[in-house]
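FORM 12-B: Structure-to-Sequence Request
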């Protein structure tokens, strides 16, 4: 790592510090799902994340072949930032009001 430019090393350190982002959906799923279904929900969440990561790597390879590695990585960064901003905006919106009688007997935990 000593032979790498300072910007690359700084980027690696920043990315390592941000690894906690991957734990993001877990707490939200645990809050939204009843206790008796949490194991199943977390399994589906993990399987979905692994599937999407594989699809993302495949698309990144296709993009790198089409437009070059630098452009593909820059595009992935811009797309990731746009998705993060959209998710942050969605998280700030107040939740919709519950509809009476939609799910009989359901309680929120």
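FORM 12-B RESPONSE
SEQUENCE OUT:
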């Amino acid at each position: 790592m000593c032979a790498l430019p300072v910007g690359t090393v700084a980027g690696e350190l920043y990315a390592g510090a941000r690894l906690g982002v991957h734990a993001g959906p877990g707490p939200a799923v645990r809050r939204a799902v009843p206790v008796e279904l949490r194991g199943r929900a977390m399994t589906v969440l993990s399987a979905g994340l692994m599937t999407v990561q594989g699809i993302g790597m495949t698309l990144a390879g296709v993009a790198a072949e089409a437009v070059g590695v630098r452009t593909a990585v820059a595009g992935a960064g811009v797309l990731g930032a746009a998705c993060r901003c959209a998710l942050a905006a969605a998280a700030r919106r107040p939740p919709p009001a519950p509809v009476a009688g939609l799910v009989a007997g359901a309680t929120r935990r």
